[in-house]
Design brief:
Elements lengths: L1 H14 L2 E8 L2 E8 L2 E9 L9 E7 L7 E5 L2 H15 L10 H10 L4
Antiparallel strand pairs: 1-2, 2-3, 3-4, 4-5
Helix pairs in contact: 2-3
């Protein structure tokens, strides 16, 4: 019974949202997530010039090609990521974006002190 429980837990963990990679790119940091076979990439960068819409920009996309990139601004990295999550959730059906647990994304980014 314990073996079956361990297998079930391992299978659930394999499907759970998790950061699989993080690296610096230009002035920002990129975080790759996996969840149930879907890939999500989130890039967080600070303002680069006075014309930017906010202090921090978050971008998110899913899949190997940078198609359907969702970009939002915020006064903090957390606010920018939250805005991307809200926009992604609002528009995911019309742009055929996979559904993600954005509260989980925020929690994972908080755990690595990204936001």
């Amino acid at each position: 019974m314990t073996s079956e429980r361990a297998k079930g837990k391992a299978a659930a963990n394999a499907r759970a949202l998790r950061i699989t990679d993080q690296f610096r790119k230009n002035r920002g940091i990129v975080y790759d997530f996996r969840c149930e076979g879907d890939r999500l990439t989130v890039c967080i960068t600070p303002r680069s010039n006075e014309d930017d819409e906010g202090d921090w920009r978050a971008e998110a996309w899913s899949g190997p090609a940078n198609v359907n990139v969702v970009r939002e601004w915020g006064i903090s990295p957390a606010e920018a990521v939250r805005a991307v999550g809200d926009s992604w959730t609002l528009h995911h059906a019309e742009h055929s974006l996979p559904a993600f647990d954005w509260a989980g994304v925020e929690k994972a980014l908080g755990a690595v002190r990204a936001i």
